[in-house]
Amino acid sequence: MWTSFVLAFAATVAASDACWRKIPRELTICGLLAGLAYHIFYGGFWSAVLASCLGFAVSLGLFELRALGGGDVKLVTALGAILGFQHWLLAIEVAIGVAAVMALAGVIRRRKVLETLRNMGRLLRHFAVNGFRPHPEIHLQNQSLVRVPFGVAAALGTICTVVMR
Question: pTM of whole model > 0.90?
Answer without folding.
Answer: yes
